[in-house]
Amino acid sequence: MKISKDQLAAAISGFSKHREHVCHTFNDHAQRRSLPIRITAPEVKGAFAAQALRWADRGDDDTGILHDEQAKTAVECLFWLWRDEKQQGLVLGAMQSGKTTTSLALQWAGPALYLLTGQRAHPFYLISSQTGHEDQTKIELERFLAYYGDLEFAVSEENAAIDDIDAAFALSPTLAMYRHHILRDAKEELLAISSLDEIVHRRVHGGMGIKQIVGLYRRATDGGYRPLMIIDEPQFGAGDRIVEETNSSRRIPCMLTRIFENIEDEIGRDRKDHWFVGLSATPFELHDLDRVWKVRQYLSPAYSGFNFFGGSTIADGVEVDPPNVMSRTEAARWLGVPFFADISMRAYDGLARGFHAHARKIKFDGDQAEYRTAVERALRRAITAILAKADDEGSIGICIRAFNDNGRTERLIERLRLPGNKIEVVRYFGSEAADLSVKRIIARRKHLDLPYVIFVTNRARMADAFPRRVRFFIEFAEFASNLNALLQGLLGRACGYGKSSTVIMSDANKEITDMYAATRGGYVHRTSPHSIVVNGFRRGAPSSMIKLTREMADATVAGFFSAIDRQVVEPAVPPGSTSLNPPRMRGGKFRTGPILKVAAELKLFEHVESKAIREMNDETGKKFAYLDRIVTVSEKQRFFCSLNKTCFLYHFYC
Asked: Considering the entire predicted model, what is its pTM?
């Protein structure tokens, strides 16, 4: 399309003002944080006219665009990378709040730290193996560099680390020059990791694995560079695996653990020559660690999501509205489709016994074939009712996850027989979604003027960013296995800037979501497959359980465990067993365990709740862990003790 001089001038002017605003935001916050780095934007002309046109024509697509909140968050990270002695950092962000763009701005750590310390940081990304994640990151990185690669860096004279900097960088102190000249021997920018435990024996997307990452570290450190590993969602694939063997069990470390161990073995465990920064909305494994500096993602009122985590606010002073969350029972009333509340995909396409159990529960008199017909009719009516209730003009999207199985989802689509002249069906699974992000899949649909239903299976998690026009999300999972799965699923995909989403989920998952909001992101459910909350849960709120371990160098605690061994474990747990087999009491008596009695006799509760004990380190360097603390445990022996018909689970760490 031919462009006029006035249109070109308007594009250049708008792009110039945007870059100047980014510089102003960065510099203002850097001054507030006493970070002596300033950036300036050269005039846009000539070669940068193409970038100006791309920026002007972006529409609603802000891919690679740096907003105020991400710029300020990046400044916070640069400050900690410069001033803090810790090598590890965490950016705690709300779901779909711009963490990816924040991570791109960490490319600025290269020129900034070079001017401040003389160190040549080599930032690179460690992402999941999801093709959508890689696709999104590559596109955003390319556009970020195009928009901001020529911004010039300067440091105050009193904070300059070196007097005689590289001549080429001194002439053009930009990110582009730093990448192309200072890092001229460091080629890798983007690595992919997989969630598979046995990565060494499997091919990962792009052919990158542990050996390649370790090789990058070796080349970088040998060349005088300091690697900066930027990990998007560090908990993804972070679960250790326990393998049960004869009379023992063996722990297979997760992939990230093996990556770090191999890096430390390769470059030396005591060398302080690398960083890593993780960015996550559900950092259950890192959130409570003291060895990690933390930065909270800045948010604006335009964001829709959950502005809290772990019982605390993420961004202070900002009013943020979450997406509208409805249970299927509530949605059935709202839509006027009563049977929608009785839909169970397990009963729809599962074993006969599962159907019969559900049929008895909902008092359904027909057989499974009749139930399938009723489910399909109700789902068709629900989709039509949602589109009728939507107040949007033009095409809107509904995202549905019925199964995590592609074949079953395809059969459901065929049986629904949605009218193709009124609703387009989009598939984000199987070969049709290979190597494409969800945004690209939606953009490539045939009928851009029609509303659409996008069906997903095991995708739509982590980095899958849905566009704003996908207004409704229906999740048919009955009960989330953990908080990470719930938050990083369709609930998280419904969050984001400029969104006004409605999420429909099971009554049980809605209850967990309500409790999560009521406790401001408390640990109201199992957090993730590889973390343990050291407390119980009472009506969705954590109790005040305290974790005690045998290894604590404390006489009272040692006496408690010794008494429990004598009075509970030895009489009731056979040697070599992990199950409780206490003798049954007769004559109307019930079984008891003297655990609370022993604790009371030793004044254990008063002892561990004293301030001196709470702040004391034991000889292993570990602290007593209290409410809202998470620990990862290696081995545990469990046994049950029934007290007045209440079942308590005790963990003994040996």
From this structure: 0.76
